[in-house]
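README, section 4: Worked example with a bound small molecule

Sections 1 through 3 covered apo chains. Here we extend the same pipeline to holo records, where the ligand is supplied as SMILES alongside the sequence. The molecule in this example is zinc ion. Nothing else about the input changes; the structure line simply encodes the ligand pose together with the chain.
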Amino acid sequence: MKFCGRVALFFTAMLFALAQPTAAMQEAPLPRSSHVPGGVARIVVAPVTGERKAPPQAWLGDQRVLVIEEGGQWLAIVGLALDTAPGPQELRVHHLGDTRRLPFTVDTKQYPEQRITLKDTGKVQPSDTDLARIALEIAEIKKLKTHWRDTDDTDTRFALPAKGRLSGRFGVRRFFNGEARSPHAGFDIAAPHGSAVTATARGVVLNVGDYFFNGKTVFVDHGNGLISMYCHLDRIDVAVGDTVNKSQRLGLVGMTGRATGPHLHWSVILNSAMVDPALFVPASAMAR
Ligand SMILES: [Zn+2]
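The generated complex, written as C-alpha coordinates:
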Protein backbone atom coordinates (compact mmCIF):
# COMPACT_ATOMS: atom_id res chain seq x y z
CA MET A 1 0.00 0.00 0.00
CA LYS A 2 2.86 2.27 0.88
CA PHE A 3 4.44 1.63 -2.55
CA CYS A 4 1.11 2.25 -4.34
CA GLY A 5 0.73 5.45 -2.42
CA ARG A 6 4.14 6.60 -3.61
CA VAL A 7 3.32 5.65 -7.19
CA ALA A 8 0.04 7.53 -6.93
CA LEU A 9 1.88 10.50 -5.49
CA PHE A 10 4.42 10.33 -8.32
CA PHE A 11 1.68 10.26 -11.00
CA THR A 12 -0.20 13.05 -9.26
CA ALA A 13 2.99 15.11 -9.28
CA MET A 14 3.53 14.31 -12.97
CA LEU A 15 -0.02 15.31 -13.88
CA PHE A 16 0.36 18.51 -11.88
CA ALA A 17 3.64 19.26 -13.68
CA LEU A 18 2.04 18.61 -17.08
CA ALA A 19 -0.91 20.84 -16.24
CA GLN A 20 1.39 23.77 -15.41
CA PRO A 21 2.38 25.90 -18.39
CA THR A 22 6.13 26.14 -18.70
CA ALA A 23 7.85 29.48 -18.21
CA ALA A 24 8.41 29.60 -21.98
CA MET A 25 4.67 29.20 -22.66
CA GLN A 26 3.79 31.88 -20.14
CA GLU A 27 6.32 34.27 -21.62
CA ALA A 28 5.37 33.81 -25.29
CA PRO A 29 6.71 36.81 -27.16
CA LEU A 30 4.20 39.54 -27.87
CA PRO A 31 2.73 40.67 -30.10
CA ARG A 32 1.91 37.29 -31.63
CA SER A 33 2.65 36.91 -35.32
CA SER A 34 -0.30 37.03 -37.72
CA HIS A 35 0.62 37.78 -41.34
CA VAL A 36 -2.88 38.88 -42.39
CA PRO A 37 -4.60 42.23 -42.97
CA GLY A 38 -5.14 43.67 -39.47
CA GLY A 39 -2.35 41.49 -38.08
CA VAL A 40 1.30 41.92 -37.15
CA ALA A 41 4.28 40.48 -39.04
CA ARG A 42 7.41 39.62 -37.07
CA ILE A 43 10.36 39.80 -39.44
CA VAL A 44 13.95 38.99 -38.48
CA VAL A 45 16.08 41.87 -39.70
CA ALA A 46 19.59 41.09 -38.46
CA PRO A 47 21.47 39.43 -35.63
CA VAL A 48 22.36 41.71 -32.74
CA THR A 49 26.11 42.19 -32.98
CA GLY A 50 28.63 44.44 -31.26
CA GLU A 51 26.92 47.48 -32.79
CA ARG A 52 23.96 47.15 -30.42
CA LYS A 53 23.74 50.90 -30.12
CA ALA A 54 22.86 51.10 -33.79
CA PRO A 55 19.60 49.21 -34.24
CA PRO A 56 18.33 48.83 -37.80
CA GLN A 57 15.74 51.24 -39.11
CA ALA A 58 12.88 49.76 -41.12
CA TRP A 59 10.05 51.15 -43.23
CA LEU A 60 6.89 49.74 -44.76
CA GLY A 61 6.15 52.13 -47.60
CA ASP A 62 6.74 55.62 -46.16
CA GLN A 63 6.01 54.54 -42.62
CA ARG A 64 8.78 53.87 -40.11
CA VAL A 65 8.38 50.48 -38.37
CA LEU A 66 9.02 49.33 -34.79
CA VAL A 67 12.23 47.29 -34.39
CA ILE A 68 12.85 45.40 -31.13
CA GLU A 69 15.64 43.25 -29.78
CA GLU A 70 14.57 39.69 -29.02
CA GLY A 71 16.55 36.49 -28.55
CA GLY A 72 19.76 37.98 -29.95
CA GLN A 73 18.05 39.32 -33.07
CA TRP A 74 16.62 42.58 -34.30
CA LEU A 75 12.99 41.99 -35.17
CA ALA A 76 10.74 44.30 -37.15
CA ILE A 77 7.22 44.32 -35.69
CA VAL A 78 5.12 45.38 -38.67
CA GLY A 79 1.49 46.48 -38.46
CA LEU A 80 -0.60 45.36 -41.47
CA ALA A 81 -3.59 47.59 -42.16
CA LEU A 82 -6.99 45.93 -42.68
CA ASP A 83 -6.98 47.13 -46.31
CA THR A 84 -3.58 45.55 -47.07
CA ALA A 85 -3.81 43.47 -50.25
CA PRO A 86 -2.87 39.85 -49.55
CA GLY A 87 0.30 38.83 -51.41
CA PRO A 88 3.92 39.93 -51.46
CA GLN A 89 5.07 42.91 -49.41
CA GLU A 90 8.48 44.40 -48.81
CA LEU A 91 10.20 45.90 -45.81
CA ARG A 92 12.99 48.42 -46.45
CA VAL A 93 15.80 48.16 -43.92
CA HIS A 94 18.70 50.50 -43.26
CA HIS A 95 21.44 49.07 -41.04
CA LEU A 96 25.13 49.82 -40.59
CA GLY A 97 25.29 51.83 -43.80
CA ASP A 98 23.46 49.24 -45.94
CA THR A 99 19.96 49.40 -47.37
CA ARG A 100 18.20 46.07 -47.97
CA ARG A 101 14.74 44.93 -48.96
CA LEU A 102 13.15 42.05 -47.07
CA PRO A 103 10.20 40.38 -48.83
CA PHE A 104 7.36 38.81 -46.87
CA THR A 105 3.87 37.55 -47.64
CA VAL A 106 0.48 38.66 -46.34
CA ASP A 107 -2.13 35.90 -46.24
CA THR A 108 -5.88 36.27 -46.77
CA LYS A 109 -8.23 36.51 -43.81
CA GLN A 110 -12.01 36.59 -43.98
CA TYR A 111 -13.42 38.41 -40.95
CA PRO A 112 -17.01 37.71 -39.82
CA GLU A 113 -19.98 40.02 -40.51
CA GLN A 114 -22.11 41.78 -37.92
CA ARG A 115 -25.42 43.59 -38.44
CA ILE A 116 -26.32 46.32 -35.94
CA THR A 117 -29.57 48.29 -35.58
CA LEU A 118 -29.26 51.81 -34.19
CA LYS A 119 -32.29 53.84 -33.11
CA ASP A 120 -30.42 57.16 -33.23
CA THR A 121 -30.33 57.46 -37.03
CA GLY A 122 -28.34 60.71 -36.67
CA LYS A 123 -25.32 58.54 -36.00
CA VAL A 124 -26.00 56.51 -39.17
CA GLN A 125 -26.84 59.38 -41.54
CA PRO A 126 -25.02 62.38 -40.09
CA SER A 127 -26.18 65.91 -40.97
CA ASP A 128 -24.04 68.18 -43.20
CA THR A 129 -22.71 69.98 -40.09
CA ASP A 130 -21.78 66.64 -38.57
CA LEU A 131 -20.14 65.51 -41.84
CA ALA A 132 -17.89 68.60 -41.78
CA ARG A 133 -16.93 67.85 -38.17
CA ILE A 134 -16.34 64.16 -39.00
CA ALA A 135 -14.04 65.09 -41.91
CA LEU A 136 -11.90 67.27 -39.61
CA GLU A 137 -11.76 64.53 -36.99
CA ILE A 138 -10.77 61.87 -39.54
CA ALA A 139 -7.91 64.12 -40.71
CA GLU A 140 -6.79 64.73 -37.11
CA ILE A 141 -6.84 61.01 -36.23
CA LYS A 142 -5.03 60.13 -39.48
CA LYS A 143 -2.21 62.51 -38.48
CA LEU A 144 -2.04 61.11 -34.93
CA LYS A 145 -1.72 57.58 -36.33
CA THR A 146 1.53 58.46 -38.11
CA HIS A 147 3.14 59.97 -34.98
CA TRP A 148 6.66 58.71 -34.26
CA ARG A 149 8.66 59.07 -31.05
CA ASP A 150 12.05 57.39 -30.67
CA THR A 151 12.50 55.52 -27.41
CA ASP A 152 14.32 52.37 -26.34
CA ASP A 153 11.67 51.23 -23.85
CA THR A 154 8.60 50.40 -25.96
CA ASP A 155 6.64 47.71 -24.10
CA THR A 156 4.82 45.41 -26.56
CA ARG A 157 3.31 43.23 -23.83
CA PHE A 158 -0.04 44.81 -23.00
CA ALA A 159 -2.36 44.55 -20.02
CA LEU A 160 -6.10 44.59 -20.78
CA PRO A 161 -7.33 48.18 -20.32
CA ALA A 162 -10.65 47.34 -18.59
CA LYS A 163 -12.21 44.54 -16.60
CA GLY A 164 -15.22 43.17 -18.42
CA ARG A 165 -16.62 40.93 -21.09
CA LEU A 166 -15.27 40.84 -24.63
CA SER A 167 -18.18 42.24 -26.63
CA GLY A 168 -16.69 42.98 -30.03
CA ARG A 169 -13.79 41.42 -31.85
CA PHE A 170 -11.39 43.15 -34.18
CA GLY A 171 -11.96 43.11 -37.94
CA VAL A 172 -15.69 42.35 -37.93
CA ARG A 173 -17.33 43.77 -41.08
CA ARG A 174 -20.18 45.91 -39.79
CA PHE A 175 -23.50 46.99 -41.21
CA PHE A 176 -25.43 49.72 -39.37
CA ASN A 177 -29.14 49.58 -40.18
CA GLY A 178 -28.24 47.55 -43.27
CA GLU A 179 -25.55 49.95 -44.54
CA ALA A 180 -21.95 48.84 -44.86
CA ARG A 181 -19.54 50.77 -42.64
CA SER A 182 -15.82 50.51 -42.02
CA PRO A 183 -14.73 47.27 -40.35
CA HIS A 184 -14.39 47.19 -36.58
CA ALA A 185 -10.81 48.38 -36.09
CA GLY A 186 -10.65 47.66 -32.37
CA PHE A 187 -11.61 45.46 -29.51
CA ASP A 188 -14.68 46.10 -27.33
CA ILE A 189 -14.88 45.36 -23.63
CA ALA A 190 -18.35 45.70 -22.10
CA ALA A 191 -17.91 47.07 -18.59
CA PRO A 192 -20.10 48.95 -16.12
CA HIS A 193 -20.53 52.67 -16.67
CA GLY A 194 -17.89 54.47 -14.58
CA SER A 195 -15.46 51.57 -14.19
CA ALA A 196 -11.75 52.25 -14.73
CA VAL A 197 -10.02 52.43 -18.11
CA THR A 198 -6.30 51.86 -17.68
CA ALA A 199 -3.19 52.18 -19.83
CA THR A 200 -2.14 48.96 -21.57
CA ALA A 201 1.53 49.86 -21.12
CA ARG A 202 3.65 52.84 -20.11
CA GLY A 203 3.63 55.78 -22.47
CA VAL A 204 2.92 59.44 -23.00
CA VAL A 205 -0.57 60.86 -23.56
CA LEU A 206 -0.48 61.91 -27.22
CA ASN A 207 -3.96 63.40 -27.47
CA VAL A 208 -7.33 63.64 -25.79
CA GLY A 209 -10.50 64.59 -27.65
CA ASP A 210 -14.27 64.28 -27.94
CA TYR A 211 -15.11 62.83 -31.35
CA PHE A 212 -18.39 62.31 -33.20
CA PHE A 213 -18.04 58.54 -33.51
CA ASN A 214 -15.41 57.68 -30.88
CA GLY A 215 -16.68 59.99 -28.13
CA LYS A 216 -14.26 61.00 -25.39
CA THR A 217 -10.96 59.44 -26.40
CA VAL A 218 -7.40 59.13 -25.09
CA PHE A 219 -4.39 58.29 -27.25
CA VAL A 220 -1.31 56.88 -25.48
CA ASP A 221 1.99 56.84 -27.37
CA HIS A 222 4.17 53.87 -26.39
CA GLY A 223 6.99 54.99 -28.70
CA ASN A 224 8.29 53.84 -32.10
CA GLY A 225 4.91 54.06 -33.80
CA LEU A 226 2.99 51.98 -31.23
CA ILE A 227 -0.08 53.88 -30.00
CA SER A 228 -3.18 52.78 -28.11
CA MET A 229 -6.56 54.48 -28.33
CA TYR A 230 -9.37 54.30 -25.74
CA CYS A 231 -12.85 55.46 -26.84
CA HIS A 232 -16.40 56.24 -25.60
CA LEU A 233 -15.07 57.31 -22.16
CA ASP A 234 -17.44 58.95 -19.71
CA ARG A 235 -14.60 60.98 -18.21
CA ILE A 236 -10.93 61.59 -19.06
CA ASP A 237 -8.45 61.82 -16.15
CA VAL A 238 -5.23 62.59 -18.04
CA ALA A 239 -3.90 65.47 -20.15
CA VAL A 240 -1.71 65.67 -23.25
CA GLY A 241 1.95 65.18 -22.34
CA ASP A 242 1.29 63.20 -19.15
CA THR A 243 3.52 60.18 -18.66
CA VAL A 244 1.44 57.15 -17.70
CA ASN A 245 2.46 53.79 -16.30
CA LYS A 246 1.07 50.38 -17.24
CA SER A 247 -2.40 49.94 -15.68
CA GLN A 248 -2.61 53.60 -14.58
CA ARG A 249 -6.16 54.98 -14.83
CA LEU A 250 -6.85 57.13 -17.90
CA GLY A 251 -10.56 57.68 -17.36
CA LEU A 252 -13.89 55.95 -16.90
CA VAL A 253 -15.96 53.65 -19.10
CA GLY A 254 -18.90 55.40 -20.74
CA MET A 255 -20.90 55.49 -23.96
CA THR A 256 -20.01 58.86 -25.50
CA GLY A 257 -19.99 59.03 -29.32
CA ARG A 258 -21.52 56.15 -31.32
CA ALA A 259 -22.14 53.47 -28.72
CA THR A 260 -25.17 51.33 -27.96
CA GLY A 261 -24.16 50.72 -24.34
CA PRO A 262 -21.33 51.40 -21.91
CA HIS A 263 -18.15 49.80 -23.19
CA LEU A 264 -14.53 50.50 -23.93
CA HIS A 265 -13.51 50.48 -27.57
CA TRP A 266 -9.76 49.89 -27.58
CA SER A 267 -7.62 50.21 -30.70
CA VAL A 268 -3.94 49.57 -31.27
CA ILE A 269 -2.05 51.49 -33.95
CA LEU A 270 1.29 50.22 -35.24
CA ASN A 271 3.17 52.07 -38.01
CA SER A 272 -0.12 53.91 -38.70
CA ALA A 273 -2.08 50.63 -39.18
CA MET A 274 -4.96 49.64 -36.91
CA VAL A 275 -4.10 46.11 -35.82
CA ASP A 276 -5.74 43.45 -33.66
CA PRO A 277 -5.21 44.44 -29.99
CA ALA A 278 -5.64 40.79 -28.90
CA LEU A 279 -2.23 39.99 -30.43
CA PHE A 280 -0.56 42.14 -27.74
CA VAL A 281 -2.17 40.48 -24.73
CA PRO A 282 -1.04 37.18 -23.14
CA ALA A 283 -3.39 34.34 -24.09
CA SER A 284 -4.03 33.66 -20.38
CA ALA A 285 -5.44 37.19 -19.92
CA MET A 286 -7.65 36.84 -23.03
CA ALA A 287 -9.12 33.55 -21.78
CA ARG A 288 -10.74 35.13 -18.71
ZN1 LIG B 1 -15.63 49.04 -30.85
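What to look for in the output: Residues 55 and 211 are 37 Å apart (CA to CA). Residues 113-286 form a domain with the Glucose Permease (Domain IIA) fold (CATH 2.70.70.10).

Section 5 describes how to batch many such records.
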